[in-house]
Design goal:
The protein has 180 residues and is mainly beta. The chain has one domain: Lipocalin. It has one helix and eleven strands. The protein has an eight-stranded antiparallel β-barrel.
């Protein structure tokens, strides 16, 4: 088993949600930490664990960001972290995998399925080994108690229910502990 530490300075945790039913508003979380435990001999034994600082969200609009951090959405005062812990990794051929896991937002845990593609492994100029991964999923924000909305005069709602999540991950191989 090899442990890979997620390098948040070379990774992205991004989301997109419909706005006014006609366009998408995108955002990202800038502070997160996590590990990938990779079993090269049997990928099904691999796992992923991530913790995200919810207050680090940004949509490039401070007023909207403050609203998203408020009790009407993420309530970062009461629920400062969101987590993901894998429960099953299924190889799908080549460099593709399905990673099932438990996503916890506002102390509500739901199972989600991530579509993951390994992007490769390489040596950095600093002598470390790095690996890249891309992953995506969709969730319904109401499943996590993120219910706030406003009805539009023209019909429909201000904020869509489906949230698209995209991850770009670069991770650094960690030294083996207890190796002889």
């Amino acid at each position: 088993m090899t442990t890979w530490q997620i390098d948040s300075s070379h990774s992205a945790v991004e989301f997109a949600v419909k706005h006014m039913m006609i366009s998408r508003t995108k955002g990202r979380f800038t502070r997160f930490d996590g590990q990938v435990a990779l079993d090269e001999g049997n990928h099904a034994n691999s796992s992923v664990a991530v913790e995200i600082d919810v207050a680090s969200l940004t949509t490039n609009d401070e007023k909207r960001d403050e609203h998203l951090r408020s009790a009407e959405f993420f309530d970062v005062e009461q629920y400062p972290k969101m987590t993901f812990a894998s429960t099953k990794v299924t190889p799908k051929g080549g460099d593709r995998f399905e990673v099932l896991g438990e996503l916890t937002i506002r102390d509500v845990t739901q199972q989600v399925a991530l579509t993951v593609e390994a992007q490769g492994v390489g040596a950095s100029p600093w002598g470390t080994q790095v690996a890249g991964f891309e992953a995506s999923t969709e969730i319904n924000r109401k499943d996590y108690g993120l219910n706030w909305n406003v009805a539009l005069e023209t019909g429909g709602l201000l904020v869509g229910e489906t949230v698209k999540i995209n991850l770009e991950v670069e991770a650094t191989k960690q030294a083996a502990v207890g190796a002889a």
